[in-house]
User: What shape does this take?
Amino acid sequence: MAKVTEEARQLYGEHVAIYQQQIDSLLIREKNMLMMIENDSVGASYKRLMLTDEMLYLTTLYLAKHSLSLSLLGVKNEDALNEARKTLYKAVIYLEEVVTNFIDVPYSDYEAQIEEIRNLPQTKRYYLIRKLGLAIRLVLDAYGDNTKWRWTFVELEARFATVTKNILDLKQASKIAFDPRSPDYDDTIYHLRLLKRLLQQAADRYREKYELSTGRIDDFRLAINYLLALRRINIILNERTEAEEAKKKADIWKEKMEKDHQKSESQKR
Assistant: This one.
């Protein structure tokens, strides 16, 4: 590795100080917002949506510090990268606190929470989800393929799939999806397409995690739950063939999970 010049270090210090100033400011704003929510619950859901958005911006600032280190010093800034990952989790958690982290449940189970953000237009819901997806991709790319966090990111991406589903007003979405004249038609269709892809991906990745890493039945069960969540969306959209395919796949996976569990229990005896 080439020696880092003093000029490069000085330039890095000047630029990184600008990012750090913005980071410190956002962390103070986050603390103040949480205090506001604790003292007054009115509009808490909208405040948490603001926190989600600000955590995504904060994530990009940590990534900027990391990129600056790579370009000027030729080394990864592991501390900044880890802060970006942790901040990304905070963004997901704040969003889960608004829309819940329920995977395969009827919409009625969390409809009350979605009603609290009824004034949030579909276009802004979809935009927030796209920003979250981009931030996740940027963090994953920054870590690279051989990261020790590989299997941890399976959970992160799955939770992303969950909030992508839960932020939708499914009652409205199921109507708008069949009404091309609606001003929300395009955003709703794109949101639903993304959702179905993410649910399938979450199922496949948890199955892969089970097979290649943990061997934990909990991971296999989550894979099946995401398949069933996908089937539930297919049913809402009257996609009968797709719903039947998801059900068949889930049944096959359940059968294998039960056999694996029985085998594991017999080996313990």
In short: The CA atoms of residues 164 and 195 lie 6 Å apart. The first helix runs from residue 6 to 39. The two ends are 54 Å apart (CA to CA).
